[in-house]
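Moderator note: this is an archived Q&A kept for reference. The question asked for a predicted structure of one protein chain; the sequence and the answer are reproduced below.
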Amino acid sequence: MDAVAEVVRSDAALLEEDLAEFLGSLTAPGSVASQSVYESALRRSLYEPVADAVGSKVGQEALPPTAGAPGGNRAPLRPSMVYWAYRNYRGFPDEIGNGAGHDGSEADLAVVRRAAVAVRVMLKAFVAIDDIQDGSEVRYGEPALHVTHGVPLALNTGSWLIAAVLRHAADPDVVDSLLRAVESGFTGQAVDLSTRTAETRAELLAAPLEERVAYWESLAALKTGTLFRMPLDSALAGLRVVDDEQYVLDAAMRQLGLASQLFNDLTDFVPEFGGGRIHEDYDGLSNRVFLELLDPESSQPSLSGERLKAYVLGHPKLESTLLALAAEAVLLKHEAKESVYRVCRSDRSAAYFDLTIERKGHLIDRLLETLQQRSGA
């Protein structure tokens, strides 16, 4: 495990170096005359927001700095599923050097390095735009980009970054994969925003539970599932992995996305995990807990805001629903991991995957344990 952790850390350090180089190329173009009015305006209105967007925390537990390890004492490192795919399909450093890897591993690594940067920055772009649409003022403990720079600049920055990383990815198959992720993400966001309209709210309130759950799963697969699938899809596209394993991994990432969204929905009811956002989002009906507890016979179409909050928090089945959904999240995560293990080329690859995915995955287990303790189960 220590040897695998060193490879994970080395790959993550390489990604941080590439990110810094990418950011430098965006914010310090040689074609802009120094000390000009134009340069000053460009830096204030684009390069500074870009630096803030890309440089902000990503919200997942990182590998802490360790003296003597790859990455050294610099900022915490965050592994990438893009690099897991490279190690799984092209081998670990000692394997590649001994010919066990792919003949074009050096060229593949170049594609993967660009894809990893593109994925990380694309996620930042999504965050900048999503926070505007959701009215979120804080992201991972920091002011949201639109709070520090205003809505117009934050919207422009997120849109500009999407274009920039598509150009940076370069490889046509990787670009196509990223474009599909953009389409899925914005489609999911449209469905999410629809839950705040009177028409969709009325339809959801009147629908049977099975249809409400199906609605939530489609939404979560498009929004959160895309965030899990995008790194793997782009890597598999760049590595030209075209066999049935693509479908296995795609399904596994969808399950992880659903598990992650369940976790996010549940933390609105668990102070130990929700932090400052506890009991906050009652404007839409995209939260799975709300959809589980709504009763078409007694709920009113106008149920929202404080009325929805009172209805949900006072519901007699709230605690049992939280416990059941937390167990569902753990099961989804477990099944997803078992699926990925089946396509791992080695025990080292499985260990690499665990070190990468469990940065947030372990919180799903802890959430269930917390709810079980709270309920005495």
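Archived answer notes: The beta strands are 138-139, 142-143.
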